[in-house]
Amino acid sequence: MKQIFKYIILTLFVPALFIKCANNNTQNDPWKTANNIVETIGSISFKDTTYNITKYGAIADGKTLNTSVINAVIEMCSVNGGGTVLVPEGTYLTGAIHFEDSVNLKIDKGATLLFSVDPKDYLPVVKTSWEGIFCYNYSPLIYAYGKKNIALTGEGTVNGMAIPENWWRLKGKTKYGWKEGMESQLDSVGQPLLNQYNKNQTKVEDRQMGEGHYLRPHFIQFFECTNALIEGITVEDSPFWVIHPVLCENLTIRGVTVNSNGPNNDGCDPESCKNVLIENCIFNTGDDCIALKSGRDDDGRAMNRPIENVVIRNCTMKNGHGGVVLGSEISGGCKNIFVENCEMNSPELDRAIRIKTNNNRGGVTENVYIRNLNVGQVKEAIVRINCSYDSKEGQGNFIPTVQNIFISNVQSQKAQMALKLDGLEGENCIKNIHIENCSFNGVKEDNVIKYVESLNLKSVHINDELINESL
């Protein structure tokens, strides 16, 4: 195992800085901050009035479109002071559902909301964020804009019915059903146009996408909402990102199961949110299980709203590109992130912890605390930090910073490598990384560590050999 660190030193091209074992970056226990975040989020309650959608004309045959009925009942509930809109046992077809203030939409046990795969059922367009760029696009399947005290709860299921024959083919890859001659988000009127809007900083209201632009809608998006809860539901087969809160404050996502293995099917992607608790959830996804974001490139810098004060605990990550991921759309910054007591295990899980960014994104990612992870197996690395993610985007002038990362008590059984940390040559973009009391077993290859300043390993075991090193 000495050979591993011989390799590290040879590939470390910034001046090595030896540092003492830090007392967890602060004289105070940072995990007290996590407790304070949870207390700040608190809980929400609703008026003790229930509106059963079947009493207002909803039909549970899986064929009749119930969009107008469900939205009318939600509006009625809100106008009357709020309460619970109940979706009872049965299967209900619907288009876009839009929240109003003080409403708990409860999907009862045995109930399923099936979402139409006709894009016209998600018009007119609404204000959204698509891969960290603001625009007007198809409505998310479940959407709230500027609402307060809202919840999506219950033991039932919401199913986006996305498959290669409908939404997923718009990814533009044959793996997901696309064929030569078909439209896709890669067409000039799709993602390339949106990227140009971002680069030019076109007014958001002039970024009209939707029909004819082939950008898939998100499943659940709360946008600029305060005091929100998503709890207990099962989410299946999303067209795009699954749970995507944007610019929200005081948000809890608890006991949610995500089973969605399509393209860009990230499980939960809070973007530029403050005070977020994600706990007791299960993620089986086609992309990142959880990914924290804060806007892409120019939009992220212009908004300048970090994702901050996030607690992730007691979650299970199965298939996915990463268990807990920060980035890549993280131009607005990321800080005060706490991850603990999670299980990660699947031959189809690429990495456990990942931070991904590049010099188009920029931004500062800092004060990240991770502890008590049980990792069975991953395909690549247990810890992956990449400051040159997605090189096909070309080179920019916005050097990202990743600093003050503290990882402790991680146990893993099988991985290609323990650590893969890639900075940028000539830039101190990765620094002050602490890994302590970890055991990485079944590791096949040496660590890869390039352009990193201030890496401290204490009581780290790789394949049962002890390592105490400061670089």
From TrEMBL:
An MF annotation (GO) of this entry: polygalacturonase activity
Keyword terms, alphabetized: Glycosidase, Hydrolase, Signal
Organism domain of life: Bacteria
InterPro entries: GH28_Enzymes, Glyco_hydro_28, PbH1, Pectin_lyas_fold, Pectin_lyase_fold/virulence
One annotated GO biological process: carbohydrate metabolic process
Signal peptide from the UniProt entry: 1-22
Pfam family, one: Glyco_hydro_28
PANTHER family linked: PECTIN LYASE-RELATED, PLASMIN AND FIBRONECTIN-BINDING PROTEIN A
Family: Belongs to the glycosyl hydrolase 28 family.
Name recorded for this polypeptide: Glycoside hydrolase family 28 protein
Native organism taxonomy: Bacteria, Pseudomonadati, Bacteroidota, Bacteroidia, Marinilabiliales
